[in-house]
Amino acid sequence: MIKTKEISHFSPRQRRAIADSFAVDAKTTENTLKRLGINGFSRSNIAAMLGKSAGMDALTPGLITQPSIPTAVQFLQNWIPEIVRTVTATRDIDDIVGQTVAGTWIDEQVVQPVLERTGQAVPYSDYGDGHNASWSMNLVARNIVRFEEDLTVGQLEEGRSAAMRISSAAEKREAAAESLEIARNEIGFLGYSDGENRIYGLLNDPNLPAYVSATNNAAGTSTNWEDKTYLEIQADILLAISTLQTNCKGRYNPKRDRAVFAVSLAVEQWLNKSNEFGKTVAQWLAETYPQIEVKTSVYFEGANGGANVAYLFAEQIGGSRTIDQYVQDTVRFLGVENKGKSYIEYYSNATAGVMVRVPVGVFRMTGI
Predict the structure, then answer these.
(1) Nearest alpha-carbon partner for 180 in 300, 21, 304, 332
(2) Do residues 35 and 17 make contact, with C-beta atoms less than 8 angstroms apart?
(3) What is the Cα Rg of the chain in Å?
(4) What is this structure's pTM?
(5) Is the pLDDT reported for residue 283 higher than 80?
(6) 187-198 burial, b for 16+ CB within 10 Å, e for fewer?
(7) What number is the average pLDDT over the span 102-109?
(8) CA-based angle 245:116:317, to the nearest 5?
(9) Are 269 and 280 in contact (CB under 8 A)?
(10) Class of residue 262 by CB neighbours under 10 A (exposed 0-12, middle 13-18, buried 19+)
(11) Mean of all residue pLDDT scores within the chain
(12) SS3 274
């Protein structure tokens, strides 16, 4: 006789009730598990599970999602309130030579009149010809260059950036102003080729005097300050001061008149070289010539064929500024164009670069 296996039938409701409430306990037998379709467990297996307090509420199926930590990382993040913005090189033409607002945005040129008085006194004679004093006028012209920058802000962009606590419009305005300032600063040092070569900078104005080479160190191997001692660097500075004073024929007095000593960032720290008494070159310069102010610029690095340079110039000679920068507009707002989903703002600036007005008041040294 063929034996039929015992069949256990559970309705969906019964099966769900069993799945929700069934647990392995002391009354659980191998047959009980078999009736539920759980096979392969012997009495010893069940006893071992009970000894470990194992529950059998439901068999654990294979994972459908990726394994993860119990708490999402987003709930464990601490956002720093300060936003770090990238920076650019310092813009220091205004700090070195100043700025004069001259002309308007629509002008084409800035013209500097240069007047020279003429005349020569001669011994007096009742019957001799007179010698008339006079004057001569020259006009030095510099062209004006205008730059432009605009920005566009959309409604969706502005709303989403606000969710990050950022004003997209404000950031773009600052970016526009900064790019215009970078262009103006670069022209202040290097000029701008406008086709007529009438926009110059501090490093290439045609009125500048020729460079004077720094002296060699004691070993005769280098003119660079990094290879020189306190006394050798001091000698270079004294050469610059004495030469400028001599060239100006007394119009510049280093103990009385304000002046700028501009060097490259690459060599500024060598002014901290000290002597045997612990005094640095910078301290000596500040104490001996308090009217000379040290300024720095990255543009002086390698400015003369790869050699670092230094400028010493009097702020004024005979009441006139030695060097000036002529700017018409630092930033000019041109207008705004409203569109259906965005708006555009337009900005500009204008500059005529730098002019060396009194060349005799400038001394340039190379090779430091």
Answers:
(1) 332
(2) no
(3) 41
(4) 0.75
(5) yes
(6) bbbbbbeeeeeb
(7) 92
(8) 30
(9) no
(10) buried
(11) 86
(12) strand
